[in-house]
Amino acid sequence: MKHQRIRKILPSIALYGLVMLIIATPLQAQNYIEGEDFVTIAADAKIRSDGRVDVMEFFWFGCPSCFRFEPVLLQWNIPKEVNFSNVPAAMVDSWVFHAHAYYAMDLLKLKDPLMQKFYDEIHVKRRRINNADSFGQWASEQEGVDAAKLIQALHSFATKSKVAQAEALANKYGVSSVPTLVVGHKYRTSPAMAGSDLRVLEIVEYLVQRILAEESS
Fold first, then answer.
1. For residues 53 and 47, is the Cβ–Cβ distance under 8 A?
2. CA 33 → CA 36, 185, 203, distances in Å?
3. What is the predicted pLDDT for the residue at 19?
4. Model confidence over 54-110: pLDDT tens digits?
5. In this structure, what are the phi and psi dihedrals at residue 99, rounded to the nearest 5 degrees?
6. Which of 63, 95, 110, 162 could crosslink 103 through cysteines, CB 3.0-4.6 Å?
């Protein structure tokens, strides 16, 4: 009799758990407080012509918090509605060289194999790479990398233009610290605001869906 009663209760418990999960999911967004977890920086969001929402991470290679955040970003299962990009923060003079280094790597399609290595070189090996000579030496040590071409890209007009654009974006969106994420050109958030590296990505995904819902309404 006791076992029969347990068998009857168990489905009810499972159903209750499923209902609570369904209820809790939309309400979870209520935990994200504007002004605390994110801020609005523009009246209207901009959605790409392909229907995706831009998510930009402003970072600096010399930033310990950015270094810790990078592996989390690499593990992020980026939603199909998101167009993600890195933007090197160049609003401080000492950060400008690293912005050039990033765009030099990006220009030669070396960002994916070299970005984490560059972070590691600075934060794990404690190596100062803050000029063309030290960057060229480091590049020459990387397998399959033409250091001369990378230095050429470092000084190219295309790289200089990208750095100027990155600086303008940081100013436009009020980026004052890194890492910072800008969603849909409308919202700004960060791990510091969110309280953790994982939670900020939850907030980003919420903001993406919020923008898409606003667009379709």
1. yes
2. 5, 18, 10
3. 37
4. 999 999 999 999 999 999 999 999 999 999 999 999 989 999 999 999 999 999 999
5. -65, -40
6. 162
> Tokens at residue 61, please?
């290679």
Same-domain check for residues 64 and 119? yes
CATH number at residue 60: 3.40.30.10
Residue with tokens 């295309």: 158
AA identity, residue 6: I
Asked if 81 and 164 sit in the same domain, the reply is yes
**CA separation for the pair 84, 72 (Å, rounded):** 14
Instruction: Report the domain count for the chain.
Output: 2
Q: Dig out the tokens for 195 from the structure.
A: 């309280």
| Helix/strand/coil for 69 | helix
Q: Which of 29, 42, 21, 4 is nearest to 213 (CA)?
A: 29
Range(s) of the domain holding residue 18: 1-31
Distance (Å, whole) CA 187 – CA 192: 15
**Spatial distance between the Cα atoms of 115 and 108, rounded to a whole number of angstroms:** 12
Q: Residue 129 and residue 132: Cα distance in Å, rounded? A: 8
pTM of the entire predicted model: 0.85
Q: Do 9 and 51 have their domain in common?
A: no
